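Help!! Second protein's tokens look totally different from the first
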Amino acid sequence: MNLSLNIGGMVNKPQPISPGTVLAGGKLKILSRLGVGGFGEVFLAQTESGLKAVKVVETSDWGQEEYQVFNAMFMSEASFLRTLSHPGIPKSDGFFAEGSRYFLMMEWLKGPTLEQYVEEEGPLFLDEFLGLVDSLTQVLGYLHTQCEGVIVFGDLKPANIVRRESGSYSLCDLGLTSFEGSKMSRKIAVFSPNFSAPERARGGASHISNDIYSLGATVYFALTGREPEKTLHVREQERLVRLALERQSEDWGRLALHQIGNLIILLLACLDPDPNGRPPSVRTLREAWQRTHAARDSELQEASGQSTHSIMKHLYEGKKF
């Protein structure tokens, strides 16, 4: 579908979109509302080629300068999505505009968001948590190192992560993706206060450390069911690790528990307000995941008699509180 351009604020605001709304000359029918994304809403729609997720942005209330900033970002997102090829990223299926509304069509990822899943099922068990870290370090590693340029996702949070039927996780809503070094205009400042790096609120150039902070915040939510605190002291960190180690759906061996304890500590370090205090790259986190995964595989069939207390004592031995 082709995109026709409009100047925001120059047209009357259309009727709200709801289930049953027909668009694109009858080629698209809205079935349900999936959620709210960057700048707009996301709907499930029936199209000629099957079910699609459709991101809708309404611009009728915007001024011309505000609209021009958005237009550049929307065109960038639509074009950028077509260049990506990763199982953790939805495929783009075209974009178009009607009146003051912009529509971006994407692959529909069936399943609850991480936010919905944790709210319904509670904090993740260790094996689930290991799967989440596997998915997120893979897809962020792809964006940061395997694309044409370093790509910063920009809005990693539980509401933008879908748990698929296979148990793996995928990103959704790439509306704030950008090349590293690019600056987000203050004309449209969109970020998630509880999951975005503090420096995002101050503007400036995007950096992979922004995603690393958001990964730590997302992990905190997955382990606790709560949004992260602004300052995570060592004592609170120890408490979180202890609680995580106790959430075993089946026995873990001593070595695997030790490795996942270290992995959690490293992931919580992503929440450092100072970008220089965070792990330097997703690769560092991925390597820690690989050590944990290898230990888990080798001990999967073994019953462990090692207590959580003795594991915690070893992990935090010598640390001062």
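Here's the second one for comparison:
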Amino acid sequence: MISTNITTESLIRGRFPITLTLECTRKTDGTHFHNYTQMWYMLSGTMKHTIGGITYTQFPGSLTVVPPYTRHNIDTAESDDTPVYVSISFTDNFLTDSGYRYFSFTNSRVRFEERNIPEFSELSGSKREIGDMLARRMHAEFSKHYDMDYDILRELLVEFIKLFCITEVNTVDITLPRERANAVAKAVAYISQHYTEKITIDTLCKISAMSRRVFTKSFKIVTGLTVVEFITFLRLDCARYYILFTEKSGSEIAELCGFCDKAHLSRVFSSNYKMSPTEFKRQNLSKAIILDREQAQRWDWTKSETKTTK
């Protein structure tokens, strides 16, 4: 196990509001629970994680969330490859004391800023790359031990959590027939998975089984946005991560996030954020701290001297 000197024991005793370890080991834990939230993000290999009696198989890009006092256990002994994962443990007040709306409930979903964080979720494509980058950056900051910057660590954790938050369409209080609202929810789910690709209204109409006129009107009622506005919101959020946490060029970010080219990205970004991507990064330098080469090599688990136990 690769870890820092600050352990979860310190968290339990209230000395630190967050701990973070990078683990590369085979082991089987007994069933247990904690008085704080734990998140397990998989970087490579696989492991089984049983939470509240439900067993999930984690693979690269997947996250499991364990609320306080929820029984769970992990099993990495049967993994074909030695699993590598980041374990993040924190108390609610680490976020709430800074004004974030964060709630964790025993044997239930965790909520952040009025959005749910599922017990199990996964990232793919560009979002997985961003998840890996944020995990790397959090570990690098936490590894400074007593010199870590809690504000930077908190902001990184918030950005990480946002990747996994889901917006559930409320089909109860909407002034639409239930069937139509549920159909729009299917379209929203499809867009959330494919927003970096070309999406046509015809495709969404087919998914929701509605005519173009009925679908566009229903979509606006349910989401408060037009289809184009909704897709643009998701693409801009994707671009924001790359602008803050990578040194990728504008052309690369545009391609990864579904924009036509660098000029298109810059035009849409400036229209929505009232500043260019370059200015946005400059004004958010506290978040936009990129690992230098030495830090990246130090974090690279493939170069670490670890002992594999069975």
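Reply: Different proteins will give different token patterns, so don't panic. The two ends are 13 Å apart (CA to CA).
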